Amino acid sequence: MKVKNILMPTDFSSCANAALDCAIFLAEQYDARLTLLHVLVLHEEDPADPAYHFPDGEELVARLRRVARGELRGLIDRRGGLPALDLHEVTVRGVAPAPEIVGYASEHHSDLIVIGTHGRRGLRRFLLGSVAEEVVRLAPCPVLTVRGTEEQPRLKALEHVVVPYDFSRTAKASVATAKEIARIYRSRLHVVHVIQPPMDPELYDPLHDARLSYNLMELKGEVQRRLVDVADEAPGEPVPTETAVLDGPAARAIARYADQLGAALIVMATQGLTGVERFFLGSVTEKVVRLAHTPVLTLRAAPEAAEAAA
Q1: CA 212 to CA 127: how far, in whole Å?
Q2: Helical segments of the chain, H only
Q3: 3-state SS, residue 269
């Protein structure tokens, strides 16, 4: 995965600060340009918003930039200074944050967006912040979502990388990306598949072998055997790999596995066997992003893969 231009939307909340830690780490690792983007939402009902005090457009933007620079300096001071990064700060105005973030990423060819899943518009624990949700659905590039809580693991060593695999073409692309990440960071790759009721014979037995018993234990063994070669078949140099076959509701099983493992990253595509139209998340990926304490890297499926998976 080519990463030379990272976009990090921030509202200077604690959630955004957690995402910033990940963005800085990745910018260091990839020697990438890091752009901090703050969106001034028109008519936002926030007494601290400079719009309440500086109604003139040009003066408002100037004031906001000064405030943003002050906030950024505070972030730097609290971290004891930042490494020598290619760091840029941008302020834009719009009627809603998500369209401005997506538009900026598209216009400036961002390779990756790093965003917190809760901010000033954050909802309850099991709901994804509306801004992050829109960005993941609409972004033209991969999006790394970071849960802004004390339970959120720090994206540092990347010791364990988890990639769910559902035998679709889209999932194969996810494995290739996860394997590349594991190679770069010398991580252990975990390829997991979830068996969830009702079981689909066509998925697990493409040859429709009537002799195959769908007893759960036998099915797990069959899937485990098929998973062994998945990472090896993906392009790139070999990496240490483990496989696991889980059962139950897919999203919860994946999130629980990553949490118990202490994984640093989950890699998933936004289209798979449950893929729908381009502007909507596949239901499993959406739920994983909402439930996981682990940062989740969502990849935009290639059009041909999405069509094949739908």
Answers
A1: 40
A2: 14-30, 57-78, 97-107, 130-138, 169-185, 201-204, 216-227, 230-233, 250-261, 283-291, 303-309
A3: strand
Which pTM value belongs to this model? Answer: 0.79
Helix, strand and coil percent figures for the chain, each rounded to 5:
40, 20, 40
Q: Residue 35 and residue 87: Cα distance in Å, rounded?
A: 6
Q: What is the pLDDT of residue 240?
A: 95
Decide if domain 160-309 falls under CATH 3.30.200.20: no
Cβ pair 3, 111 in contact under 8 A: yes
Q: Quick: pLDDT tens for 108-166.
A: 999 999 998 863 344 443 344 578 878 888 899 999 999 876 555 456 668 999 999 99
Q: Please report, in angstroms and rounded to a whole number, the separation of the first and last CA atoms in the chain.
A: 24
In sequence order, which residues have a C-beta less than 8 Å from that of residue 133 and are 6 or more positions away?
A: none
Residues paired with 115 in a beta bridge:
145
Asked whether this chain's domains 5-146 and 160-309 adopt the same fold, the reply is: yes
Which CATH architecture does the domain made up of 5-146 adopt?
A: 3-Layer(aba) Sandwich (3.40)
- The Cα–Cα gap between 34 and 45 comes to 29
Contact 279, 269 (CB under 8 A): no
Q: List Cα–Cα distances, 111 to 6, 42, 108, 144, 274, in angstroms.
A: 6, 28, 9, 11, 25
d(CA 73, CA 71): 5
Half-sphere exposure of 10 (CA within 13 A, CB side): 29
pLDDT at 129: 52
Task: Name the token pair of 193.
Answer: 């598949």
Q: Where are the chain's structural domains?
A: 5-146, 160-309
pLDDT in tens, 167-196: 888 889 899 999 999 998 899 999 999 987
